[in-house]
Task: structure prediction
Amino acid sequence: MQSPKPIPERRRRRDRRTDKPHPLASDLASAIDRAEVDVLFQPQFGCDSGAVVGAEALVRWFQPTRGAIGGDQLFAIATRSDLAHALSLYVLDKALDAAKAWPDDMRLSFNITPADLVAPDFAESVATALARSGFVPERLTLEITEQALVDDLEGSANRLDGLVELGIRVALDDFGAGFCNFRYLKKLPLHYLKLDRSMVEGIGHDSRDLAVLRGIVAMANALDLAVIAEGIEMTSQLEAVKREGCTSWQGFLGARPLPSEDFAALVAGDGFMLRE
Ligand code: C2E
Ligand code: MG
Ligand code: MG
Result:
């Protein structure tokens, strides 16, 4: 019998990494307890009106020694220590608390994490958070990425169905960044397709990129999905997404993620200016 192959050192290092909690995990848990983790809001604009139509909640932790840590890294740390679902519910509470003061026509988008979709009480927790804040479910969008779905598409679809029954909307986030599994479009109860930044990067100057955008918008229209373009940094990109029929957009051209007070001032028309 052949002896088993030794596990390469690179894989052993990787496995050790996933077993051990991240060195910042306990600080993160304390920061969540003390409500020191921040939630920023990046405005979303209507393509027709040009007005702010809502915002996406984005988590930031200003860690004393490492500085600002964004959502991707923060959820990677949290996932290794089983903190991801708790962090997610914390962000939802904070975001709803801010959003309840916004004008009635503003939407809130909230990113969900894979741990949310497998939590048996997720729908109940969202319903409780909504009821506590008084924010109506119809104004909440859950953004979901391919990574959150790969393990169990049927189960994820069922759990999302329950949330949609409450009136909540669902967006497929980062569309075009990964494998673009079209099964997701058939199986999930979606309302929005959110184009990844990589899908809009070249649309201002590259005819192939523009052709891909055009095809996706046509498909989204046929599926009755609204298209949100993300990562708009240049006027030429904005012109293209407007011309091609996207519904709304967000990106540094309009605004970076803002502290809650600044977003509230912006939508209340308190003289907060996005650009000079
Ligand atoms: P995302 O949901 O696709 O969020 C958009 C990301 O793109 C944000 O990065 C935002 O700051 C950035 N962005 C927006 N406009 C532009 C632009 O014009 N140019 C460029 N270069 N970037 C732009 P951020 O805040 O670092 O978040 C990264 C990812 O982390 C998010 O991607 C999301 O997947 C995850 N994330 C952030 N907050 C949360 C959260 O509260 N919960 C969960 N589950 N995930 C979160
Ligand atoms: Mg998102
Ligand atoms: Mg995205």
